[in-house]
Automatic annotation (TrEMBL):
This is L-threonylcarbamoyladenylate synthase. It holds the Pfam family Sua5_yciO_yrdC. NCBIfam families: L-threonylcarbamoyladenylate synthase. PANTHER family: DHBP SYNTHASE RIBB-LIKE ALPHA/BETA DOMAIN-CONTAINING PROTEIN, THREONYLCARBAMOYL-AMP SYNTHASE. Keywords: Nucleotidyltransferase, Transferase. PROSITE patterns: YRDC. It comes from the Bacteria. Residues 14-200 form the YrdC-like domain. It is an enzyme of class 2 (transferase). Its EC number is 2.7.7.87. One of its GO terms (molecular function) is L-threonylcarbamoyladenylate synthase.
Amino acid sequence: MAKYFDVHPDNPQPRSIAQVADSVRSGALIAYPTDSCYALGCRLGSRDGIDRIRSIRNLDNRHHFTLVCQDFAQLGQFVQIDNDVFRAIKASTPGSYTFILPATREVPRMLQHPKKKTVGVRIPDHVVTQALLAELGEPLLSSTLLLPDEEEPMTQGWEIKDRLDHVVDAVIDSGDCGTEPTTVVDFSGGEAEIVRRGAGDTTRFE
């Protein structure tokens, strides 16, 4: 059974956040809220976590996983960014965007797109997520919690606990965080290409 953490959306309880971070370090797969919608997350480099996310979401090996980072300094360890791209991303973070960029050697090969050697990165604007990332001290490997054959992600932590109780290890519930996923912008070719229009405003990338 998944552990259930009822966390305050504006003042997350440090003890609960520390417990979730400890479980992630120990290999747990968690469901957690972001500024766009709920996501599945595990420790960077956890092959078991990746396999479980693929199984839950029925994903193939072409799926772009996302590294959810605490800040720009952390993000810069995992992707290659030139000056123009740096400015565009810096102006849009934190926020509801995922950026696809060339991966550095810090990114395990199993997380990179098999042909392009790219990875998705984002910096969320969500108090609870930021608290968890600060406690964890490293990015969360993540994917939107969108189940196969469903058009929208689940929005309630208790519902996620009820439906995924035996396939995730912990659920953070801090209230409804919406159903619209991030806007995805691919910078791997040097120019901004909008791959998915979502919660983030696309104006600056058009």
